[in-house]
Design goal:
329 residues, seven-stranded mixed beta sheet, six-stranded mixed beta sheet, 17 strands, 31% helix
Length: 329
């Protein structure tokens, strides 16, 4: 009897395994991967990285002050090749009294693989109507595209802020008229995204390096664009710098900060701003948040030879106050 029962159980186990294996084999490939949002604490502030998606970019052709061969070699070191699937990250900061979004992703302005910001904002537990302020690093399409949908404000209760020089450049019709045809869409995207807030009295330019709300300060860092602005976030001795487009390709520009990109309006000035930011971040050990580093785009820098090494933030599912980051020396 025992042998018979044992045989039945073995047979049943084999049958179950076969059925399970068959079911798994027939399951279709999902073919999607979307991290969506990632949350960490910075002192008393809650930081939520929000993904607008990724887009493949031919970085071997876009990067300047280098050669395609050097770019290909640097990418190969981290098992990448062009086109590089490039993250578009934004950052939501809850200070306890204000909900602040830094940059607004691409929306429908930069291809069909982007435009996921609002869905990920909601998935993270917030609604667009809750956002009090939106700080724009610069007005390229992949940083302002989700501000408006079908001509309506996506963030109806938010005041949008950007460097004064940035707005004066991209929102001026005369500048678009005299721009090369290849760059006119940059102006059109900025105007379509920002002008509804201007008309609603919800756009306020930033003049100089100034604290915008307690704990968040704007710092001019022109070069990538005329009014490119970075944002310093501080709480309880913790610090995070939101860099916007100070850099684009981790595999290339951390090792060689002198490498620039075709999108820069003033490449030498952009490289200067990047080198300054890298050196300070490595010396002080604070966090940096970057628009186009692999999601969530938050990490620290260490000096390494003549360049730097990017250390991504350690994944943490427990939201307790963040420990003080170690200096990156």
């Amino acid at each position: 009897m025992k042998q018979l029962l044992r045989g039945i159980l073995i047979g049943l186990a084999v049958t179950v395994a076969a059925v399970a294996g068959s079911a798994q084999a027939k399951a279709p490939l999902a073919k999607t991967s979307q991290p969506g949002w990632y949350r960490m604490m910075l002192g008393d502030f809650e930081i939520t990285a929000l993904s607008d998606g990724t887009v493949p970019l031919p970085m071997d052709k876009l990067l300047t002050n280098t050669t395609p061969a050097k770019v290909e070699a640097a990418l190969a070191q981290v098992y990448l090749k062009a086109p590089v699937e490039t993250s578009v990250n934004t950052f939501l900061i809850n200070t306890g009294s204000k909900l602040v979004l830094i940059d607004a992703g691409a929306g429908a302005l930069f291809g069909p693989t982007l435009g996921k910001l609002v869905a990920n904002l909601k998935a993270s537990g917030y609604q667009p109507e809750q956002v009090d302020e939106i700080y724009i690093t610069h007005m390229h399409a992949d940083h302002v595209g989700n501000l408006v949908a079908n001509g309506k404000l996506v963030f109806p209760n938010a005041t949008v802020r950007a460097g004064k020089a940035e707005g004066e450049f991209w929102l001026t019709q005369a500048n678009m008229d005299k721009a090369p045809d290849a760059f006119k869409d940059f102006f059109k995207g900025a105007m379509a995204s920002l002008n509804p807030y201007v008309k609603a009295g919800k756009y306020k330019p930033i003049e100089g390096d100034v604290e915008l709300v307690p704990g968040i300060r704007a710092i001019a860092a022109p070069g990538h664009t005329p009014g490119h602005t970075i944002y310093e976030v501080q709480s309880k001795g913790q610090k995070l710098m939101v860099w916007g487009d100070l850099m684009h390709v981790a595999a290339v520009q951390f090792a060689d900060p002198s490498v620039t990109i075709q999108f820069d309006s003033d490449s030498p000035k952009a490289a200067e701003a990047r080198k300054k930011a890298y050196a300070d971040a490595a010396k002080q050990g604070y966090f940096a948040a970057v628009a186009h580093v692999s999601f969530p785009g938050i990490g620290q820098l260490r000096s390494e030879g003549t360049g730097y090494r990017w250390v991504p933030v350690n994944y943490n599912a427990n939201l307790s106050p963040s420990p003080s980051p170690s200096p990156g020396k």
